[in-house]
């Protein structure tokens, strides 16, 4: 009798769970709508329902980031040089919020703890016959993955952003040449290029936007250009800023300097594209050998093998 009641009890528990979850979801949606209407009455503005529904999730995400930031403050390096170096890498990857460094360090610590702790829990609950050596190796390996995995992801993100920046730079330089030769000053030309490349070159546009904001805030052009090169971390942009600083210091024509450097950057981008095209035959060799040649062998030699097998079978009879 008890064995027959177990499926009924499980079904009842599942029904009650789904019912409570539905009531909780309805209460959440109703509370969000009431909160949105109350905010509209108090502030006199219209609040979208989607924003009201997403507000608790946004708040929870912000609390999680704050927790990662507090944890990163405790477990991160304390040397100023190391902190500045890691913060610069995050800036070069496009992560430029004030607490990005702390959040990144806290995320590494939580990921290492989660992976290592999950492995230990699986070892003592599921893989109970695992040896101590394998357990220690797995624990250390997963903890290392949690620590160095985000670093590897950050390195790839920095390299990808630098490559995109190097592809967008020649077009930006061409527009700068046109604007400067049309009579604009360098600051006005940078601002104009920033607006023109918002869609086709978002990364170089954001860098030029920061440069424009620094110049408007009263920062010297030399320091603003050096900050641009440091944020980008690109050798070509570093050389460009050095040329612009020297042209500004010695009174050299900025338009001529930009034109010469623009031609060199365009040739370099073409050479990089030709290099990628030259590597394609080598990269296609592995899938050719692994997938295409076996299929060709089956199609060409398959009928001959089948005929030979039939012939030997007939001879044996």
Computed structural class: mainly alpha
CA radius of gyration is 31 Å
Number of helices: 10
Helix content estimate: over 70%
Question: How much strand content do the residues show?
Answer: under 5%
Low-confidence stretches at least 5 residues in length (pLDDT < 50)? none
Morphology:
flat
How can the largest sheet be summarized?
A: none
Order of helices and strands: HHHHHHHHHH
How many beta strands in the DSSP annotation?
A: 0
Q: What's the pLDDT, averaged over the residues?
A: 77
Amino-to-carboxy terminus distance: 65 Å
Organism: Pseudodesulfovibrio portus
Keywords: Cell membrane, Membrane, Transmembrane, Transmembrane helix
Domain Type II secretion system protein GspF: 173-301
Protein name: Type II secretion system protein GspF domain-containing protein
Tell me about this structure.
The longest helix is centred in the C-terminal third of the chain and has 63 residues. Helices cover about 85% and strands about 0% of the residues. The termini are far apart. The protein is mainly alpha-helical. The protein contains ten helices and no strands. It is a multi-pass membrane protein. It is found in: Cell membrane. Keywords: Cell membrane, Membrane, Transmembrane, Transmembrane helix. It comes from Pseudodesulfovibrio portus.
Question: Could you write a compact summary of the structure shown?
Answer:
This is Type II secretion system protein GspF domain-containing protein. The chain has 317 residues and is mostly helical.
């Amino acid at each position: 009798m008890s064995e027959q009641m177990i499926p009924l009890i499980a079904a009842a528990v599942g029904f009650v769970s789904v019912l409570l979850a539905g009531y909780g979801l309805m209460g959440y949606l109703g509370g969000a709508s009431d909160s949105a209407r109350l905010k509209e009455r108090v502030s006199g503005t219209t609040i979208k329902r989607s924003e009201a529904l997403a507000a608790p999730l946004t708040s929870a995400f912000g609390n999680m980031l704050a927790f990662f930031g507090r944890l990163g403050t405790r477990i991160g390096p304390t040397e100023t040089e190391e902190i500045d170096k890691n913060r610069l890498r995050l800036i070069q990857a496009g992560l430029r919020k004030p607490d990005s460094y702390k959040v990144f360090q806290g995320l590494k610590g939580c990921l290492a703890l989660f992976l290592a702790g999950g492995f230990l829990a699986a070892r003592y609950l599921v893989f109970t016959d695992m040896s101590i050596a394998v357990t220690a190796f797995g624990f250390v390996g997963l903890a290392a993955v949690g620590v160095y995995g985000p670093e590897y992801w950050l390195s790839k993100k920095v390299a990808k952003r630098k490559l995109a920046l190097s592809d967008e730079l020649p077009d930006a330089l061409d527009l700068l040449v046109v604007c400067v030769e049309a009579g604009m000053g360098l600051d006005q030309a940078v601002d104009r290029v920033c607006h023109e490349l918002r869609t086709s070159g978002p990364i170089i546009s954001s860098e030029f936007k920061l440069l424009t904001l620094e110049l408007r805030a009263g920062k010297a052009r030399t320091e603003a250009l050096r900050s641009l090169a440091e944020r980008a971390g690109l050798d070509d942009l570093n050389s460009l800023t050095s040329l612009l600083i020297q042209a500004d210091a010695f009174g050299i024509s900025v338009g001529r300097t930009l034109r010469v450097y623009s031609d060199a950057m365009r040739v370099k981008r073409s050479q990089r594209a030709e290099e990628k095209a030259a590597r394609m035959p080598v990269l296609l060799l592995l899938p050719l050998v692994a997938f295409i040649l076996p299929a060709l062998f089956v199609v060409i030699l398959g009928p001959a093998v089948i005929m030979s097998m039939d012939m030997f079978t007939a001879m044996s009879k």
